[in-house]
Input
Amino acid sequence: MGEEIRIIAADGGTFAGYLALPARTPAPGLIVLPEIFNTNAHIRSVADGYAADGFVALAPDVFWRQEAGSYLPYTDEGRAKAYSLRARLDTDQFTRDLGDAIAALRARPDCTGKIGVMGFCLGGMFAYLASTWLPIDAAVSYYGVQIDQHLGEADRLECPLLMHFAENDPHVPAQTVSAIQARLGGLGSVSIHIYPGTEHGFNRQGYPPYNDAAAAQARQRTIAHFRRLLS
Output
């Protein structure tokens, strides 16, 4: 189990992050960015899992400027609240906040200074943006939404990027994945995988539409990506 820490934003505010430590430190740092439901119990368990695999994992509160501590359940009410908070989220501002979280993680004595960013759904978009705007060493995006709206920033790609998509995903439909493949697929630093028979959220263990085989394969690829680039 991890603990909640405070991160100082560049404008003087502070926000929470869930920190999970590996058995041995110093270790590479890993920012874990949540789905639209924010850093809830599931995302914290993901951070715990990567800490067990040897990373200093930090999962920040994405909606702290809208409503701090809104970690939402996978219910109709949680979904409605999540969409309300998302509508008020400033993408550029949170990208800057993410930069502050990265700096805080890198400065920790238990971190080697190598940093990866991974995210799911909304967090998958921010993982992509981190790879184009922020000083990181590797990024992984799981079924990131609205990435097609930011493909113009691909020229700024600064680190290797691994992308996982579901075959049957109304939030990231096939034509969107095709557009992403057309822009990014030819870059040597980008790897894109589509998982047959899966839906948006296939990595969400314990909740539908979890897919054990796809989640295991994607995680294996993710671990290999980070170990290669953050060691």
